[in-house]
């Protein structure tokens, strides 16, 4: 008997024997719920035997038999009633535990528990509920097997990657039938938030309506995705609407897990705690920087992967540059707590960055992960990991704290059949096709290709996906398009200068300009003008419009 926890009050398992009851009682269980009909297997003890052993051990026992493969809506409702009536915690069992897990999933969906939360709990317990995902999305009820919509191409996500690939597809095949799924009303130019946090950009310039950006001829389905059914070429939306496709592009972006840091959500935007990773908080960063005359400024970076890995230190450099220009730097202590082991992952850019670290008298603390914040007390706690793997908790005070939260794939992707073991969409890193599921493609922050998660990466990925998808549909010919891992991180080391880091897979430098024009390893004023004046228009007017300036994909020989 192997009990697998679904919640604090319910575990499930395969068939138990009367001899298991004493151990269950010792483990703290107060009831057992049988979901297996008597006589299903030749070696199966009758429920009466289980019930007698349970009563002898002081446990309640209940019998709710369900035929394998035939879990009805009525069965799920009865399971919920039985679970409510039994003393907790409960062990529910059947032949393998799958029926019990299915009954719980459907009953919890009827109570309103989010789909991703149900799928995550069952997946963690070792049970795959993707076969009933549509019923879970339908609040536990059996839906009709009819698609609400069907398109040649369905794109999940209306961020930089999703809109860029929609535009690249339309540029190549204007008559292609495309739907884009995203519930958001506003689209953000997130690379601009570092500049907002330094008082350089107005926040309003980084936001536009989603409706104004979705390419003409692309249907916008304003809804959230609940689950995927790749075997049926279907996407399940919240409310159990079903959208079918011939080809699926998955680009939902990344989840910022603010709640993973104890005490952080309740103090964000107050008590000097801020982040350039949110539209509404970036102006508060600039407010904190301006108001800090003396004291302690702390900047953090979580474990990888994160979007724009250079952004945590960009906020440090621009803040310190302001304090230097305002002649306050000598009165401000700056500390950078980085969960990783190095300042930047591509070694050629580190010498220039270190010169600025020294210029701003910033102290570097590697292998320090932020775990707790007390905003009113102005205290922060980090877990430090040494070279041998041992950990200790380090506490510090602050007057200003710039936080970058841990980041994961979105919940609905993490628990889906499309994800790898870490929760990211599994793709071939060169073609960006799904690693095992035909007709599915991934790009942007949520895919598992080992590239930097930046808008610049999405700009190069979108044409690759567009080309290969159309080739697979038989609408164009030629060799596969290949992505080389390109990403760009304009490191704003001071107001007016940038180290324009451009690199691909394996940390290989991939500069776009000759060194006589922009030396990518050194701070450059021209690179600053590129970031401040040129890249925003390229984003809005080229990348999101299917104009692939300096982004045409290379093809296989």
What does this 3D model show about the protein?
By secondary structure, the chain is α/β, with parallel strands linked by helices. It has three domains: 4-137, Protein-Tyrosine Phosphatase, Chain A (Alpha-Beta Complex), CATH 3.90.190; 150-253 and 409-555, FAD/NAD(P)-binding domain, CATH 3.50.50; 258-406, 3-Layer(bba) Sandwich (FAD/NAD(P)-binding domain). Helices cover 27% and strands 24% of the residues. Strands 6, 7, 10, 11, 12, 13 and 24 form a seven-stranded mixed β-sheet that branches. A hairpin with a 2-residue loop joins strand 26 and strand 27. Helix 3 (73-85) crosses helix 4 and helix 7 crosses helix 13 (455-472). The model has no long low-confidence stretch (mean pLDDT 94). GO terms for molecular function: FAD binding; hydrolase activity; quinone binding; sulfide:quinone oxidoreductase activity.
- The total of beta strands comes to 28
Percent helix among the residues? 25-40%
Largest β sheet strand count, sense and barrel closure? 7 strands, mixed
Q: Provide the β-strand percentage band.
A: 15-25%
What is the CATH C-level name of the largest domain? Alpha Beta
- Corresponding CATH superfamily of the largest domain: FAD/NAD(P)-binding domain
Structural class: alpha/beta
Question: What form results from the Cα inertia axes?
Answer: globular
**Count of domains:** 3
Which blocks of ≥5 consecutive residues have pLDDT under 50?
none
What is the CA–CA distance across the termini?
56 Å
- Total of helices: 14
Proper CATH architecture of the largest domain: 3-Layer(bba) Sandwich
Mean pLDDT: 94
Q: Would you tell me which CATH topology of the largest domain applies?
A: FAD/NAD(P)-binding domain
Cofactor: FAD
Keywords: FAD, Flavoprotein, Oxidoreductase, Quinone, Transit peptide
InterPro entries: BLH_phosphatase-like, FAD/NAD-bd_sf, FAD/NAD-binding_dom, Prot-tyrosine_phosphatase-like, Rhodanese-like_dom, Sulphide_quinone_reductase
Protein name: TIGR01244 family phosphatase
